[in-house]
Amino acid sequence: MTHRILILGGTTEARQLAGKLAARTDVSLTLSLAGRTENPVAQGVPTRVGGFGGADGLAAYLRRTRIELLIDATHPYAAQISANAAEAAQEAGVPIAALRRPGWEPAEGDRWTLVDSVAGAVTALAAAPRRVFLALGRQEVAAFEAVPQHHYLIRSVDPVEPRLAVPDATYLLARGPFREADEQALLLEHRIDAVVSKNSGGEATYGKIAAARALGIEVVMIGRPTLPDVASAESVETLAAMVDHLLVGHFLGPAAERGV
Ligand code: NAP
Questions:
Q1: Which fold would CATH assign to domain 3-102+226-258?
Q2: Ligand 1, atom 13: nearest CA belongs to which residue?
Q3: How far apart are CA 241 and CA 233, in angstroms?
Q4: Measured CA distances, 126 to 94, 116, 144 (Å)
Q5: pLDDT of 142-188, one tens digit each?
Q6: Which residue of 148, 198, 248, 255 has the fewest C-beta atoms within 10 A of its own C-beta?
């Protein structure tokens, strides 16, 4: 008997988890991507691309394709799809588990200014012109047009189109992971005095945070959004190990899943 699993992805961990589960002969896997990145990294497993049409659309997809387990392995800032996933799983009676990588904690020497949104980061830069590294998605950087007096270094996977309506911006195209030594060199080369970052967690993008600490540079850290309260694991290995239990819960019904 093969079990049908849908992984909501768009992260390195989702790809790793998919690779791990795809090796199982009793699992039939689909990985779902939003379709934001023009040339996504090859996923190596059956993949579908594009939105489902909200929570109802996702619930209908779960029923239509007879999914037995939904895994939310999206980025911690992709709050809409995570909310939709929790709602759809409940609506369709399908167990759900989330892969939630822990956020970074400030360490000795860090100069973090905590804000709770991109708008908060825009305000935190204040009035005096600064040299700012925006390590954010291309959808988010447009908000910084509100403070055009700063110089911006903008790094993204796909080109930022249209360009920002600010007089002084430099664009870099790159895909992580990024090493700390390279990040230090970048910050020095562009004489950066503020880094704006999400608290993504994980290793791949931590280099800029460690580099900023080493150079005494301020990091404007955007806090995480609230995510739904579902069963979760912090690592690919832990979540992969939970799969059998979650599938058994599905077949025995919700009472068994709750352990009653
Ligand atoms: P979002 O705001 O939470 O989601 C917006 C809409 O995009 C969702 O309602 C859904 O459309 C669709 N969607 C999102 N993820 C999907 C997936 N894996 N498969 C199918 N549809 C998906 O998401 P976002 O912040 O734009 O992120 C989009 C994708 O990029 C996510 O898969 C995420 O893992 C990845 N990503 C995000 C960030 C970030 O900082 N936000 C960083 C790295 C990677 P429908 O309502 O039509 O179903």
A1: Rossmann fold (3.40.50)
A2: 34
A3: 10
A4: 47, 16, 12
A5: 999 999 999 999 999 899 999 999 999 999 999 999 999 999 999 99
A6: 255
140-143 LR contacts (CB < 8 Å, sep 24+): 143/118, 143/119
**Where, residue-wise, is CATH 3.40.50.720 in the chain?**
3-102+226-258, 112-222
Atom of ligand 1 nearest to the CA of 137: 40
Q: How far apart are CA 131 and CA 44, in angstroms?
A: 40
This prediction has a pTM of 0.91
Closest residue by Cα to atom 32, ligand 1, is 10
Q: What is the share, in percent, of the chain residues with pLDDT greater than 70?
A: 95
Residue 190 CA to ligand 1 centre (angstroms): 31
Architecture of domain 112-222: 3-Layer(aba) Sandwich (3.40)
Quote the ligand 1 centre to 81 CA distance (angstroms).
6
Q: What is the 87 CA–ligand 1 centroid distance (Å)?
A: 15
